[in-house]
Amino acid sequence: MRPGVILLWLAEGFVVRLVVAAMLLSLAAAGSARAGRETISIAVTEPQPATLTGDLYTPSGKGPYPAVVLFHGCGGVTPNVPAWAQWLQSEGYAALVVNSFQGRGLRNLCADTRPLTPAVRAADVYAAAAKLQAMGVVDGDRIAAMGFSHGGSTVLAAWRTQSTHPDVKLRALIALYPGCGSQQLPPPDAAPLLILAGGKDDWTPAESCQKLADAAREAGRPVSIVVYPDARHHFDGADLKRPVFVSIAKGGKGATVEYNPKAHEDSEKQVKQFLAAQLRS
Question: Is 145 exposed, middle or buried (0-12, 13-18, 19+ CB in 10 A)?
């Protein structure tokens, strides 16, 4: 074989090996996709048509993933909400942080919730879950909703209205320090609910949530509640360095928010166990 032919043969073999190596790397990357985040749009119709936005966090590995839709409190998307989304992402869940305010021109509802009550906002829960189902990135049969304060009350309202959204099935619901003023129970086939509340919460007192949980369990609904005796409202707000008095809360009566590391740590444990039982079984 002539030297030129030998060199050509060697070069072609080297190129083939490079192509094969690139294909193998591509397949490996596809099989272990990196965790990511993207902003998506969510169309809603209540109380008027609007387009909301949401940040979707996806875990590493192959989908479709079990998912959790998260709903912020009356002050908008505070740091604790994306922090939970990132924690859920690390636990193998897709997490969608829905901004219910920006697309509606709202900034804050802490003084007055009438522009967007939890009962009306509950439709956002089902719109967001439907959006995830349509995208195909998550397992449509393994979606949970999680809310904080006003978002927690929104999740409770969604819990009560599941029968009006037959095309979107929520497998589990989690409400952190929600307002439990309404004692209305959900339909008999309602999804399991976990409530996490603070015993020293002077904004949304835990007593009414305990009363609701007791009545729901007596009626055969799957409800769990954990009350942290020393915790105040927003006990998972790790960005808070000291107690903060929110003067506009409760129509100007005011209330205190405070981070509680022990309650936060246990709430992660409770959420992890609850989601594992409801979305991974």
Answer: buried
